[in-house]
Design goal:
The chain is α+β, with helices and mostly antiparallel strands. It has 8 helices and 18 strands.
Length: 360
């Protein structure tokens, strides 16, 4: 069994290598190979599908529940305002700078450190470590692909920057393509029905609309019109106007229910969801893992951001080192002590955790 110092060294060494290895979404091949090689070096037999890499702690026992440790390898593209080279890990005053250091490289390596410790002892569960791809784009070849290769999961810990507070629920996402329909005509004459005017009136009603159910953890459903397009030329009254809604659902509604409610309240708008699969997720505050978090002084909260939890049909929690406010920003960084703390806290929260085959 490695000491906590050795686990920290393995984790931070891997993080530096990951920063140095570009892994923009859908191009995580080299980063996945780094994780694969690290697992081999530590004595495990990793598996891979696409750019997703996973391994089991020991022989699988179907009589035990199965716990998944997961975070993602991919990053967004670096913002143009980076001062440092985003792919060169630079340590300054206890901070490690580099693209993906905070979101979510620190979670990947901290969960790996905890996995190495827990795998060296007998646990009341099967343990799987999975570094997945395409999280930032909710891609079909990310965790959704990998989960089909894994045994049934009873509980998952998803590593994302939450300052090591457990997010027991997170908002879902709907992108809605909307259209208002009018009648074309000459702009110089009093004719036609201007679909752009219909759209602006509808958008104002949408701005005031509120879904009735409010989540105690996530608050209200958030509806934002983000794009609009109409017209073919200056002297033609537009006969249709297209606009886009970004809708963040709370845990009171499925995405299907949210679309139905909007269609009932706005029958004059054609509403077409691009996808219904990115639903909100939630976990009971009484789950054994959350009870341990509370005892450790880590209070649960609701997260407004989406993660790979949306692909999980089993209980899961989002918790990891770093701060979401640093994600996707220029000169992103992780405080190195946050990684040490995360490894130790993950171990504390997971060692001998009883989750059962039927989690709360």
């Amino acid at each position: 069994m490695e000491s906590k110092d050795e686990l920290y060294y393995i984790a931070t060494d891997l993080l530096r290598k990951l920063i140095h290895t570009p892994s923009i979404s859908r191009n995580e091949e080299a980063a996945a190979q780094l994780v694969h090689d690290t697992l081999v070096k530590q004595g495990f037999t990793p598996h891979r599908i696409g750019n997703n890499v996973w391994t089991l702690a020991q022989a699988y026992d179907p009589a035990k529940p199965t716990l998944l440790l997961n975070s993602h390898l991919d990053t967004v593209k670096p913002a143009a305002s980076w001062i440092r080279d985003p792919f060169t890990p630079v340590e300054e005053e206890g901070r490690l700078y580099g693209l993906g250091s905070n979101d979510a490289g620190a979670s990947v390596v901290s969960l790996l450190g905890a996995f190495l410790f827990l795998a060296s002892t007998e646990q009341p569960y099967n343990l799987i470590f999975l570094a997945s791809a395409e999280e930032e784009v909710s891609g079909a070849n990310g965790i959704a692909l990998a989960l089909g290769e894994l045994p049934p999961i009873d509980f998952a810990v998803v590593g994302e920057p939450t300052t090591m507070r457990p997010a027991i629920c997170e908002k879902g996402l709907l992108v809605l393509d909307c259209t208002t329909h009018g009648k074309s005509g000459h702009a110089a004459r009093e004719e036609g029905i201007n679909a752009l005017y219909l759209a602006t009136e509808a958008i104002e009603r949408l701005r005031r609309f509120e879904f009735p159910l409010v989540s105690p953890w996530l608050g209200r459903v958030k509806l934002t019109v983000t794009q609009i397009q109409a017209g073919t030329q200056h002297n033609v009254v537009p006969d249709h106007c297209d606009f886009v809604i970004d809708l963040r659902t709370n845990d009171c509604y499925s995405n299907t229910q949210a679309v139905e409610i909007l269609r009932e309240n706005f029958p004059d708008i054609t509403i077409t969801p691009r996808s219904l699969r990115l639903n909100s997720s939630s976990l009971s505050p009484q789950h054994p893992f959350i009870r341990r978090c509370t005892l450790a002084g880590r209070e649960p909260f609701g997260s407004p951001t989406l993660s790979d939890q949306t692909h999980m049909t089993f209980p899961s929690v989002k918790i990891g080192p770093g701060d979401s406010a640093r994600s996707h920003t220029a000169d992103e960084y992780i405080v190195l002590d946050e990684i040490r703390e995360a490894i130790e806290l993950y171990i504390c929260l997971l060692d001998q955790l009883e989750i059962g085959k039927e989690s709360v």
